[in-house]
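Study this:
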Amino acid sequence: MTKIRERRRLQIVQSFRQLLFQEPLEKISIEEICQEAQIHRSTFYRYFQDKDDLFRFLFETYFVEQLDNTNLVTSVIHLILREKKIFRNISINNQRSFAYWLMIDIVAARLEEAAKSGELAQAPELCVLATMITGSTQPALTAKMIAGAFLVLLFEWIDSNYQMTAQEVEDLVKSLFNDNFN
């Protein structure tokens, strides 16, 4: 992709991200994204098939790429804290389940990749996850189960308006795996 095309795609993604600070995912239209990015609707479709495709790109590029596989729980929690408004508008303020299932798929793929590469096992409190995933006859499904449980916990945390501290959430997740699987 040329630098101009890359800048244009980035402009669309940043405009979408900016809109996610202001309103729920389901309420953002392609027309709004185009207005925010100051582009024509046809330009949007040169880069993305639809809003879901744009959301997938944003989530994978801006959020998942920031995660540290050796410290996954902590890095996810801190990412949510840095992007509170966006995660609220993706999770509890959003009635469509697409975003939730997409996030499960992406987080599960990241978990499976980190387990297979050995990165997940480097965190002593999470090495049981690596064992669960790599030792399973269905590693992808096992990773999805773990990702789903983790996202439910995080969405509940967001829904409670962060009643627990980040450290309490992190300790809870780590203790669930240590206490129940060791």
